Amino acid sequence: MTLPTPESGVTIAPLTGIPEVREGDDLTTLLLAAVAGAGLALTDGDVLALSSKIASKALGLTDPAGDKEAVVAAETVAVVAERGTGDGVTRIVRAAAGPVMAAAGVDASNTGGRDVLLRLPRDPDAVCRDLHTALCAATGVRRLGVVLTDTAGRPWRTGQTDFALGAAGIQVLDDLRGTRDAD
């Protein structure tokens, strides 16, 4: 398979075959094995996006599933909105990790069959910087973007969206203040 050049477009290649991640796992080793398993190699200009769940698992950011409310409260910087849901309250909060989202990003899904809650890394950019440094050192690649993603619902609406929770090695903000748009 010939991949397009940066001038001809964007290619997205899923990395499959990553085993269930556990606390203490070396994400650099796991990701490089997945890249090689896909028949690819990281090159200058690539951007590697990975789920925050992988990082949370490797970092051991888990709590027992018993008291989600207490974990959410500990991960909440400020409550933005609340709404009764029949069997409880949904809180939209500013999470310690930065974004405004439901339940501070505390989640019990995709936990590898364990009865735990996953928390988001408190400094997602630092997670990306560490991974960026390790991947560049292991591969010799110098221009590599690393993006930590998370999935969030639209409050009180159906559907999910994925967003960049943290990043390193890539410009994530284009400040257009004071410039003119097409209209």
Query: So what's the oligomer here?
Result: single chain
Rounded to the nearest angstrom, the distance between the terminal CA atoms is 42 Å
Task: Please state the overall shape, judged from the principal axes of the Cα atoms.
Answer: globular
Number of beta strands = 8
The overall pLDDT average reads 90
Q: β content, as a range?
A: 25-35%
Order of strands across the main sheet: 1-7-8
Report the biggest beta sheet as strand number plus sense, adding barrel if it closes: 3 strands, mixed
- Low-pLDDT segments, ≥5 res: none
Topology as H/E string?
HEHEHEEEEHEE
How would you describe what is shown here?
With 183 residues, the protein is of the alpha+beta class. 23% of the residues lie in helices and 26% in strands. The protein has four helices and eight strands. The chain has a three-stranded mixed β-sheet. Strand 7 and strand 8 (160-168) form a beta hairpin. It is globular and about 50 Å long. The mean pLDDT is 90.
